[in-house]
Amino acid sequence: MKTCGSARRSVGLSTLLAVLLATGHASADDGLSGGDTAWILTSTALVLFMTLPGLALFYAGLVRSRNVLSVLMHCFSVACLASIAWLVVVYSLAFGDGGGVHAVIGGLGKSFLAGVGPDTMAGSIPETVFFMFQMTFAIITPALIVGAFPERIRFSGVLLFSLLWLILVYAPACHWVWGGGWLADMGVMDFAGGIVVHTTAGVSALVLVMVLGPRRGFPNELRPPHNPGLTVVGACMLWVGWFGFNAGSALSAGGGAGMAMVVTHVSAATASLVWAAIEWYRFGKPSVVGIVTGMVAGLAAITPASGFVGPFGAIVIGVLAGALCQWFTTWIKQGLNIDDSLDVFAVHGVGGVLGTMLVAVLALPGLGGLGLAEGVSVGDQLVTQLIAVVAVTALSAVMTFIIARIVAATTGLRVSTEDEIDGLDITGHGERGYDLS
User: I need a surface site. Which of 24, 85, 294, 340 has the fewest CB within 10 A?
Assistant: First the structure.
């Protein structure tokens, strides 16, 4: 469960909110905050703005012109599908009471928002607002995976994979960390999704493309992004929307949200400059695609730490994210020969894990952070963070492999060679992104 206030209170607030969500007996008379509610409503819109249109345009500019509409279609349809799945079952599995298996998965008691009304509270905000805010996270996480498989996947495969993935990967990971599950009980620190969002998406993307296979001509015949300008527009929307992602995860309108916004911005700016500087040194010219990719790496890496670290920590995370994520973009494609097309694992997976581990150190008051839980040492917290990363990585890898095999055996995963050559816009959707006549 995402927390508010300092790291010292994170576990207690997580447990309290999980209890409120499980019982559903709190009413508006028990402490509704108009300011908190207004901020989370705003944050919800900002996070959806990250996906539609931010992420959609970011990815669309990076593919070939004959596949631009297919990427936009993937992001948009995943958003629609995830919204309904969240209402029907995923929210309940993530935040409901699991009874005897509560540490592992929630139950079905909140399916279709059963027992939730306008006056049902989650802390200081209505549970309906909390439901919508968390829905946007469930939307963007499978949408991130879209960047791994463009230009070669069946549209029906995208839909079935995303649905099964939300139920079998996202729901349990979310419950473990934010829904009062076993990792929350251990005191794991993941303020806004380094584990729940970026680790799950990054690892799953890597496994899925290994099953799917590379694009035709990879790695020797790939063309550069067809419209870097479109990518920059999407990246700018991502940067703005990320304030709702991280600062909204305070679940309150106060100093905690303010500091989360500060460190989010600082990390993004730092990672952008580092990425551009490395490109400038290595290739003689800094690219616009590079600098905005560095920004996304900085945002992904600061996400788990954003509610716990100060500006110094944000700079450290930004520097390391800009350098490490860039190295991984090259190593995954050239070293491992894996066609993670738009670098989902290298940017989101690596960035999310990096920030998840660094928070155990950078949260120390001496480094400007808010401190660890009482009686917890840096070593203890590092072990907890590592256990969480390994557990969620294993869940994501194993379940994604199983889901990919199921999809391949039913709807099919990969388009034909002819469809790939013609482009998915016209073969999959009967439209073209550009009328060049």
Answer: 24
